[in-house]
Description:
Elements: H1 4-10, H2 24-34, E1 46-52, H3 55-66, E2 81-88, H4 97-117, E3 120-125, H5 133-139, E4 145-155
Antiparallel strand pairs: 1-2, 2-4, 3-4
Helix pairs in contact: 2-4, 3-5
Amino acid sequence: MTGALDAVRARRSWSKVTDEAPTHAELLTLVSAAGRVADHSSLRPWRLIELRGSDRDVLGRAIGKAEGDKGASSKPLRAPLLIAVVASYRKSDKVPRWEQEAVASGVAHVLSLLLDEAGWGVIWRTGGYTRAKAVAKAHGLAKNEELLGWLYVGGKPPRSRLGRRKGVEARKHVSRMPSPTSKKG
């Protein structure tokens, strides 16, 4: 098999990346594809915020404030491009909040796969400060929005000592529905 299966099997998180990053136009092409995830009622309950250059300094100050530090956090400087993943909840009688968050998470994951396949190093970073007021304010989040984390994106460094991720033993995670006769009660 080739294509998506190979791309998923080859995916890994890149905690260290180089200073290169995809252009805005390249990013838009990938986001257009990532936005095709399963989305009940086509609510599109997500948005992405592109952070480059001094945007990362603003985020660093907000994280510092959220953590009670007077200075700025250097965490956002670990990659030249950060993509904030925002769940942007819509009013719906059919689609609960958790399902809308799952759609936003799905977009982020598919985007990370597409970025990886395009040759970029990616890691999804989170932290308790994703829910901090200072961080939400820095991102301009509305009351119906929550920050789910950031995709840190940059060039892939040379693979000197990088190993492959272990595969998942699928049998441990897949089962059948219990039959009515096997239920204890």
